[in-house]
Amino acid sequence: MKLPSDTTIVEYDQPGDPTVLRVRRGELRPPGDGEVTVEVVTAGISHIDAYVRSGAEKDWDDPFPRRSGSDFAGIVVAAGAGTAGFPVNSEVIGHVRSGAQAAFLTVGIDRLVRRPPTVTWEIAGGLYLAGVTALDTLDDLKIGSDDTVVISAAAGGVGSIEAQIAKHRGARVVGTCGRRNFDYLRQLGITPVQYGDGMADRIRAAAPAGVTAFIDNFGQDGHALAADLGVPAGKFRSSAARREVEMALLAEDAASVAHGTQQLEKITALAARRAFTLLISGHYALDDVAEAYADLQKLHSRGKVVLGTKPVNPRRITKARDIAEARA
To answer: CB neighbours (10 Å) of residue 213?
Structure first.
């Protein structure tokens, strides 16, 4: 195909909520040495994107207009020199600091892995930040078969991957969530415990032999709850620690990029082997990116919300959970 000189991109000109996002045309540079141009099929959205976009992350000093998104999957359509491992027509999963939400993207091959046929495009496009954050956290805590781990927000993107991989490693897993997610977690082999008053007692009942680790993705009184459960300080990770992991995965230095890609290779292999499944609870057209982020920020979605650049049906479709919530 003839490579276009510009592409559809998602940008914003000032900090703010999802309404500041703009879908517009932007320059697409041809690939240089060690680079390829990817036609993006799917791109992920993450809570950290919203955190950065809001202006809350003071160390994020990229100039405006800023581009959005770090996770993507697509097909190589042009390749520069030194890219033998990723020829044209390669199907890839990748990561960037920002700018993944686009129709085309020129990127270094040091940020790419091959997409296995068993990993769907929807999962592939939302895999990097949630998957590698989960893997880095579990690796840091050295979660294994001797552990009983509590994971809060266990039905979300990061939490659901953490819970399933911890179980895959042989750990016993308790997932805290709202009652509507009980059946979902049970299907994954995770013991659900409802949020709210008395949660510590409910966790003790679910894990009578005790809790050895606690991962807080929810960010409300995690420290106090972990201490009440007798979790050693070194085996607790807060939502603030999660944010630090995510920000490190968006860093541009060579070591951080290499680490991110190495871990992406591992999480992709685990996905290919069905060590975990990533539920896609919202699939939006790229033009509907603001609505997709508004959906994510309700904190009601299970798994991941992703964007598709060429959806078969571009019309907005009412989701089952929207109907259920309207009736509640």
So the answer is: 26
List of residues 6+ apart from 61 with CB closer than 8 A: none
**Which of 29, 31, 26, 28 lies closest to 11 in space, CA to CA?**
26
Percent of the chain with pLDDT over 90: 84
Q: What superfamily would CATH give domain 6-127+278-321?
A: Medium-chain alcohol dehydrogenases, catalytic domain (3.90.180.10)
Q: Find the helix or strand (DSSP H, E) in which 313 lies.
A: none
Residue with tokens 């982020």: 293
The yes/no answer on whether domain 140-240 falls in CATH 3.40.50.720 is: yes
Report helix, strand or coil for 151: strand
Strand duo 35-44 + 22-27: pairing: unpaired
Give the 3-state secondary structure of residue 309. coil
Residue 109's contacts (CB-CB under 8 Å, 6 or more residues apart) are 34, 35, 36, 82, 83, 85, 86
**Domain ranges across the chain:** 6-127+278-321, 140-240
Taking only the tens place, the pLDDT of each residue in 92-122 is 999 999 999 999 999 999 999 999 999 999 9
The average confidence (pLDDT) of the chain is 93
